[in-house]
Each structure stands twice: as structure tokens, then as C-alpha cells.
Amino acid sequence: MILASCIAILLGPKIAVAYPVQGLGATSCAEFAKMYQSDPKNMELYFFTWAQGYMSGLNMGLLANKQEAKELGAETNDQALALRTYCADNPLKTYMDAVLNLWKTLRPFSQNTKGAK
Q1: Please, what is the average pLDDT of the chain?
Q2: Would you say 71 and 107 are in contact if contact means Cβ atoms under 8 Å apart?
Q3: Distance CA 33, CA 87 (A)
Q4: What is the pLDDT of residue 20?
Q5: What is the DSSP annotation of 50-108?
Q6: I need a surface site. Which of 2, 24, 25, 73 has the fewest CB within 10 A?
Q7: 84, 85, 90, 60: which is closest to 72 by C-alpha?
Q8: Is 28 helix (H, G, I), strand (E, B) or coil?
Q9: How far apart are CA 10 and CA 103, in angstroms?
Q10: Under 8 Å between Cβ of 95 and 32
Q11: CA-CA distances (angstroms) from residue 105 to 18, 62, 79?
């Protein structure tokens, strides 16, 4: 009876756990590195697109509160390299940690930036 109860608990539905981040950002840096190594072009596209979307969301929140946003469009190759480097150096962190680390280094957004509307 006890054994059956333990098996039922182990095989039963999982309890939902709330996380503040979902999607590719929740991936560990170690897992990102493995995925990147297996398919650099596509993995860079998928993960960096997530990073740009996440940082765009941060910008929108800042702008809505009349605070200074960050420039996302400049040096995107350097940004992607910074994310890969951070993950290589911090395999136990998440890809989101890498993005937040990058975020801190970005220059302020200027309305006069070429292409801004």
C-alpha cells in the first residue's frame, strides 16, 4: 500500500511552480552553449531574438515611466558575442542572467539615434 502510494505520487501530475521568466531566457548557460555548439546559426537567431524582445520589454517599461531606455540596435554582433562569452564563463547562470548583464553595459537610447522615429 505504501509502495503504491509512493509510485502514484511520483507518477502523478506535477505541481505547477511559478517562475518569473519562461522561454529561452530560463535556459541555463550550459544548455545554451550545448545548443549553440550543435547549430550556431539557428540557436543564435532563436536566443538573440528572445534577448532583443526581453530588452525591448524592459525599454518599454522604462519609457512608459519616463525613464531612460537603452540602445538595442547598435552593435548587435557585439551584443550576441557578449551573451555567448557570459554564458561560457558562467555555465550555471541562465541566459536571462547573461541578457541582464549585457543590459547594464548598453548605452542610453537617444531619440536622435539614426533610424529612430
Answers
A1: 83
A2: yes
A3: 7
A4: 67
A5: HHHHHHHHHHHHHHHTT---B--STTHHHHHHHHHHHHHH-TTSBHHHHHHHHHHHSPB
A6: 2
A7: 60
A8: strand
A9: 40
A10: yes
A11: 29, 16, 10
List the alpha helices (DSSP H) in 2-39. Answer: 2-11, 29-38
Sign of CA pseudo-dihedral 16, 17, 20, 21: negative
Q: What is the mean pLDDT of residues 26-46?
A: 95
Which residue type, as a one-letter code, is found at position 57? G
Q: What is the pLDDT of residue 14?
A: 44
Nearest to 25 by CA among 110, 106, 103, 107: 103
Q: What is the pLDDT of residues 44-84, one digit of tens each?
A: 999 999 999 999 999 999 999 999 999 998 889 999 999 99
